[in-house]
Amino acid sequence: MASQIDYMIAASIFLVVFAFTVSFVTNYYADIRTTVVISSMKSQALSLLGIADFEFQPNSSQPERLGLQTKAFRFLILVNNTQQYMINQSDSIANRENEQVLFNLTTMGFPNSNYNSTVIYDISNNNMVSYQRNADLIKFNVSINSNQHKFFMVYFDDDSNFTGSSIAASESNNLTEKIYPVEEISLIQWKKINQLVQLSYGNVKNSTGLQYDFNILLTDLADNTVLEFGQSLPSRGTIVSVERRVLYQNSTAGIGTGKIIVRVF
Amino acid sequence: MKKGYVYSLEMLIAVSIILVALVLIFREGPKEQEIEVSLLKRYAWESLEYLNNNGTLREYVANDDEGSLESAVGEILPINVFFEVDICGLQCDDTNVPKNETVISVDYYVSGYRNVFIDKKIKLWAWTGIP
């Protein structure tokens, strides 16, 4: 016959086993849930990082997919103040204060470019060079010493909306410039940055069907903010953050290097 | 009296079996998805793509300047990502790539620099570790 003590021992053992089971199962499923949530947040963050790869689809107040990317073009111009590049081979080489360089985007195969998006950089100091524009014809002046050569990088875009600025260039043209092949590059477009910041965060979150809150930050490499869109970061909770380097257009069509940081929470 | 001990022993064996089963079933938590590997691959690819877009990659490749390329990639990748870069043709040198780690590699082909045909491949191996 079982005594009261036997019943108590049996009940205690049952309670211990039951508690052990509950503890194990609870921790197990809590771990699964946390892992699934973080994986899902990572997935959304990586998807949003594709903002640097895609355009708005469609381009409206309620986009189905976010995107800031555009195709732009660039090419190099070599100005070489040596005898073999003299237009008139009987002239002698000399220092030139205002040597004219000109190119025509239509004859280069880009008739429908946004000519105002053109920016020219002196590669030696990375300074922007002013130019004179008449439709698709662009001219600028170069100061170059004899037996010196300089490279200039020209960027332009085909679907921007910049307003133009033009500074008269002199007509002194003594040297033949060498223009290198045009390259296509991918960058973050200023027009699309402006379109995005004007959208409502709530509408965007609904129309894109994103599950978690997010914050998209575009900064230059000195961490100055160029664009910020989305919710402020919470003071506590799980935040997944991913980032990548990008090229972007600034408000004057200049080309900057920066990084996109996407935070999901 | 002897029967009581046998019952107790049976009970102890039953409880032990239950506990062992619980430990075995729930010992290992759910494994995380292999997203880290794909993320690493994405970081590696995007670092080379960025260097190509900013105009430096082709110059390094044309000059066979592996040191500058490694330095530039090192500035982009997170500090817990280790990597090795080789500018090569068909055969790349993986001497410094660890053999006992999960290593991803991406290939990036560069056909020209300015008006010069160069036909080179950049192979970037990456793996994670504690900096």
Description of the molecule:
Chain A is of the alpha+beta class and 265 residues long. Chain A folds into two domains: 4-67 and 189-264, no CATH class; 70-186, no CATH class. In chain A, 23% of the residues lie in helices and 35% in strands. Chain A has three helices and 13 strands; from the N terminus they run αβββββββββααββββ. In chain A, the strands form three sheets. In chain A, strands 1, 3, 4, 7, 8 and 9 form a six-stranded antiparallel β-sheet that branches. In chain A, strands 11-10-13-12 form a four-stranded antiparallel β-sheet. A three-stranded antiparallel β-sheet of chain A has the order 2-6-5, with no helix packed on it. The longest helix of chain A has 46 residues, at 4-49. By secondary structure, chain B is α+β, with helices and mostly antiparallel strands. Chain B has one domain. Chain B has helices at 2-26, 35-53, 57-62, 66-76; strands at residues 81-88, 104-113, 116-128. A three-stranded antiparallel β-sheet of chain B has the order 1-3-2. Chain B is rod-shaped and about 95 Å long. The N and C termini of chain B lie far apart (66 Å). Chain A binds chain B through residues 10, 13, 17, 20-21, 24-25, 27-28, 31-32, 35, 39, 42-43, 46, 74, 76, 153, 180-181, 185-187, 242, 244-247, 257, and chain B through 11, 15, 18-19, 22-23, 26, 29-30, 32-33, 35, 39, 42-43, 46-47, 49-50, 53-55, 76, 114-115.
Of all chain pairs, the largest interface belongs to: A-B, 30 and 25 residues
Count of structural domains of chain A: 2
What's the oligomerization state?
heterodimer
Strand content bin of chain B:
15-25%
Mean pLDDT of chain B: 87
How much β-strand is present in the residues of chain A?
35-45%
Q: Estimate percent helicity of chain A.
A: 10-25%
Q: Give the CA-CA distance, first to last residue of chain A.
A: 62 Å
Give the biggest beta sheet of chain A: 6 strands, antiparallel
Q: Which shape of chain B, going by the Cα principal axes?
A: rod-shaped
How many whole angstroms does the radius of gyration of chain B measure? 27 Å
Specify the overall morphology of chain A: elongated
Radius of gyration of chain A: 30 Å
What is the number of E strands of chain A?
Answer: 13
Helix and strand string of chain B, N-terminal first? HHHHEEE
Q: What's the SSE pattern of chain A? A: HEEEEEEEEEHHEEEE
Query: Spans of chain B with pLDDT under 50 lasting ≥5 residues?
Result: none
Topology, number of strands of chain B: 3
